[in-house]
Amino acid sequence: MSLTGIFLILFLVVHCYINAQIFWNDGGHKFEEAAHFMGTNFIIRTVEIGLTAFLLLHIIQGLNLWLSNRSKRSVRYTVSAGNQTSAWYRRSMGVLGSLLLIFLVIHTAKFWIPNRASQISGNGELPLYHLMKDEFQYGWVVIVYIIGCITLSWHLVHGFWSSFQTLGLATHRYKYLINGIGIAFAIIVPLVFALMPLAFYFHWID
Amino acid sequence: MEHYHMNLTLKVWKQKNNNDKGRFETYQVKNISSEMSFLEMFDVLNEQLIAEGKEPVAFDHDCREGICGMCSMHINGRAHGPWHETTTCQLHMRQYKDGDTIVVEPWRANAFPVIKDLVVDRTSFDRIIQAGGYVSVNTGNAVDANALPIEKQKADEAFAAAACIGCGACAAACPNASAMLFVSAKVSHLALLPQGDPERKIRATNMVLQMDKEGFGSCTNIGACEAECPKGISIENIARLNREYLGAAFSGSSNE
Amino acid sequence: MPLNSKIPAGELAEKWEKYKSTCKLVNPANKRQLEILVIGTGLAGASAAAALGELGYKVKTFCFQDSPRRAHSIAAQGGINAAKNYQNDGDSTYRLFYDTVKGGDYRAREGNVHRLAEVSANIIDQCVAQGVPFAREYGGLLSNRSFGGTQVQRTFYAAGQTGQQLLIGAYQALERQVALGNVTQYSRHEMLELVIVDGKARGIIARNLVTGELERFFGHAVLLCTGGYGNVFYLSTNAMGSNVTAAWKAHKKGAFFGNPCFTQIHPTCIPVSGDHQSKLTLMSESLRNDGRIWVPKKQNDTRKPGDIPEEERDYYLERRYPAFGNLVPRDVASRAAKERCDAGYGVGASKMAVYLDYAAAIERYGKIEVGKQGIANASKETIIQLGKDVVKEKYGNLFDMYAKITGENPYEVPMRIYPAVHYTMGGIWVDYELMTTVPGLYALGEANFSDHGANRLGASALMQGLADGYFVIPYTLGNYLADDIRTKAIPTDHPAFVAAEKEVNDRINKLMSIKGKESVESFHKRLGKIMWDKCGMARNEAGLKQAITEIQQLRKEFWSNVFIPGDINEFNPELDKAGRVADFLELGELMCLDALNRNESCGGHFREEYQTEEGEALRQDDKYMYVAAWEYKGDSQFELHKEDLIYDVVHPSARSYK
Q1: So what's the pLDDT on residue C2?
Q2: Which chains touch A (3 or more CB pairs under 8 A)?
Q3: Is C2 a member of any domain?
Q4: Which residues of C touch B53 (CB under 8 A)?
């Protein structure tokens, strides 16, 4: 769980960095340049296969863990502690993850799949910047993306720290540092993502 | 502090034995003093039931001073009740007011099968310790106690982990029914001391293995264990256990 | 039968060494054939079972709790004594021996106590090797503190949880032997009868407390490590389940009971808050180091403690014992508190409490802190705040516990304390080898009578439990079993087992068939009240005689009117408790009888007829310098055997703390 999680966190850094290129507000020039590099570089494309595999593995591990842990308490408590002993999002990684998966299906169906399909069929890369600009004119798409980003944020608040805890790195010395970075990461990255649809929708950039 | 008396409604889990399905019984107790401990309130209930010729509620308890780890009630959704770092026996009735309803359940985890009512079988914890929670030193083999100085901070940290009373609240409170806090407390206690060093790898591996065998869940770092631990054992110990376990796995140490 | 204490001949300091090098041994192959039953898994039981398992014996352990780790040794707070002399303050084996004999008011056996002092150092080594996290200094070496009745610092500790850490150490050593297959452990099992074959202890009948079934176990030897019987008083610092049942069954089968009336009343416990009280909680003796004990000078003073001016307070320990003040031994401090309360000076709602006040200590520490930190013209508030911080660091966990139980803030309001039953020095009579008067039956730790005389010093109980288990029994048991290697395991369908099981069965059936009106708890409370009022901190002839009659009456009532709900063949805590209370009802009588026989005051035993003009204990060395070992002869029939105590080295004198 934690290793795949950390890999996905690293992916988010790259993804976020490239997406942030739109904020140069240069008509998508720098963004397209970066997207082109990512879409055509041999190494990146190879890593992409790994990423897909890790994502699937993360999902399978997660489901497996959820099912296994559920089976350890056949008779449930009538009254449970709820938020008195732990934060809701720490207990809801499965739900948050499932929501993210739904979001991911929508998201990739909109950009990544058509783009790669176009590449494979020999038609070259799609103009992703313009695609985005068009998509994010629809209010409901923007809302779906905002929800996706919020979900991601909560998933990360727990996931980031949890990965390091599971690897045994969240010791006394680093505990607060890791937790701090984790929370900052869980706010900044989804915020940057969320700013994209908003920026297009409200025409902060063209 | 003002003393007062109260009437309460108790919804208590009754289960004849492990084969019985079990159900809640509702009892009324009257004139409970705010000075009583939670278990003394149960004494009153049981005396009342006996006077009515009924069967009392079975519950585990022994020292009643928060150290033996025998008491084990899940009170209104909380392992050992609502007080921070407090066992059931040290919870006092001034927490409650007249007319309150209190729901009491046993520890619930497949690795803690119910014996009767609120009493569960925690021998799984003994077996986890048997898997490696010790230093292999025979009586009479010891060198002088001061032959090996130990950094005070390390010794204090080891003590903080060793304060675990083995009550099982961690596994009872964990949404995954994981016993990681218990296992990690012992692994940490011994890993922090030079005496525990020679067996640290095999200990971490075998104790985790035994925990899984007993049917406890896996840790997803939710933190409810730490919140409910009556001795304030930190989940930093779980990080240390993970490090010990991974370290052992990478260096290929296990006797199974 | 003359009592033979089997103390080896020779110089006191050489007895144990000589014994060890001349006792008989059992070779490893034979050890594997020898089975040992260990009853109770506290410090004595767990350490004995672990040590014997390591030697290769086949050991079975029994405890009524759900795990060996729950035994009440776990609740010991203060520490464990050892003559290590790490502080270079003049400690030695001899001094520990001397302090213990003197502390016990010259009613302990010299040979046993010296051996205890000798092995005390090994205990610390052993525990450290097991990973027991004792408190340490910044230099990494072990830390010591001082305790009552001594002039050196020889107490090793692990915060306020020394008993817990030592027991967990022994428990882990035991679990290791379980893992290695040398020990089999039976939890939630209670020994209900001793099986004797051809005059030797050969097994037990135990009840599986989960299923209610009776089970038979054979052993070449049986070790009773079942702790003390303080719960005969109903209210004590003992755990709810602590009981005398196993020891009492052994007593009825021929094991003499030594000095049953020697009970330790601990002076600093949280007072009773009402009729609902189920047990009492100890506040560590260490609190008396800094706290001042007082009551109002006026009788029935209802003012709040803060409203009572300094000149209207009676610091009675400082007044009566200027030399030792608040640090007099436990028995003296307890009696003084009782005297004040009985005279009408008690405080709190029940008027059965005295104040333990930290205000002076807080101010004193605050001033020191102000000096250390170089704060000029510190305000009163600053001083108090700094002082509270220091007190919190030293005693924080105890203050928290007090606050949880009473709901009061001990940093603001003086704590209320009162003495409570804590430990029983008396127990099954054993010889130097820890063997009882039944061959093959041993008693270790608090269950035996041997080392503490009439009063136990603080931090010595843990020492004795572990000494017996780790370092004494491995030798002395071998000396007995060496002659037993040809004895094959006796099948448990032997008539002796059948008969013993039938006895237990009959007794349980009888208890269940009474179907009276009164609960077990209620009988226990009534017995406790008789014992506390008439055989507690102060005893007198008339009271004890009356107590005996009352107990006999109560016992009759119990056997005709007790009500036990539930069935035999199930988990039935009420039935378990009924069996234990039934035994307490017999023991209580013997305790009163012993107290009546001992026409003197010594240690924890205070007979009002025998006191000095100032109200201090008055021993009668010429008449009572002996161990009273009682033989059971039938209902209410006990025969007294005397083991004279011979002091070769120490010269008994009157204890004075003035």
Answers
A1: 75
A2: B
A3: no
A4: 563, 565
